[in-house]
Amino acid sequence: LYGVGLSSGGGFVSILSMYEAMPRISSQVIYISPGSMRAFRGTRGPYPYPPTLFVYVPGDAYGSKERVLAARDALIEREHGRIRVGVLALAPPALESRTLQEHEPRFSAHAVDHITQILTRSAEPYMETIRLNAADDVIHQVLADYQSRRALEQIVKMLSGQHELSSVHANWVVSWLVSHRTVNRRTLLTSTNPTVKATSLENDISR
């Protein structure tokens, strides 16, 4: 059983892992959330807390880097260092010529090229650029269709490092969960170091 919690769900998952009566969680990931300090600072139970990966995005106030690192340190202290804890910082991807169409295949090649050029040339944040250019013929046509507007908004938020970025590197997150799982309440460790202090896109995400 693997646990995945996003935002306030991260707090729920972190508390759920405390209860012996619940099915044992093999490993868990807490997205854009510091989890629950009540769980991380509480009394250590008879079984180890499951390996936990924190994933945060830059600029998020609730699951900020400072709050996530504080939660990580509290959890490591509670478990006396005998736990696998990872921290993954998701950096916004670069805007490239194919980015829009990769995330929304329904956009025409002309619309993709046109909007990409507008976003690239602007010194304003991406979302503000879309708002300022709402009267542009191509952008207006995209915004007029509900599904296209929603898709464009989500892509722009992802590029801006907001919550929509959380799905990036999902394959790596799944790999971490599986490789750090517990079996029969015993942690499967891949090295002699009991903790993973920090993992980020800027450094090595292969651990």
Poorly predicted segments:
185-207
Percent of residues in helical segments? 40-55%
Largest sheet: 5 strands, parallel
Order of helices and strands: EHEHEHEHHHHHHEEE
Give the overall shape. elongated
Looking across the biggest beta sheet, what order are the strands in? 1-2-3-4-7
Beta-strand percentage range:
5-15%
Radius of gyration: 20 Å
Give the helix/strand class: alpha/beta
User: Distance N terminus to C terminus?
Assistant: 21 Å
Work out the helix count. Answer: 9
Report the mean per-residue pLDDT as an integer. Answer: 83
Instruction: Tell how many strands the DSSP assignment holds.
Output: 7
Description:
With 207 residues, the protein is of the alpha/beta class. The chain is 41% helix and 13% strand. It has helices at 8-16, 37-40, 65-78, 99-103, 109-121, 126-132, 137-144, 146-159, 170-179, and strands at 2-6, 27-31, 52-56, 85-89, 182-183, 186-187, 199-200. The strands form 2 sheets. It has a 5-stranded parallel β-sheet with strand order 1-2-3-4-7, with helices on both faces. A two-stranded antiparallel sheet has the order 5-6. Strand 3 (52-56), helix 3 and strand 4 (85-89) form a beta-alpha-beta unit. The protein is elongated.
In short:
The chain is an alpha/beta fold.
Topology:
Layout: E1 2-6, H1 8-16, E2 27-31, H2 37-40, E3 52-56, H3 65-78, E4 85-89, H4 99-103, H5 109-121, H6 126-132, H7 137-144, H8 146-159, H9 170-179, E5 182-183, E6 186-187, E7 199-200
Parallel strand pairs: 1-2, 2-3, 3-4, 4-7
Antiparallel strand pairs: 5-6
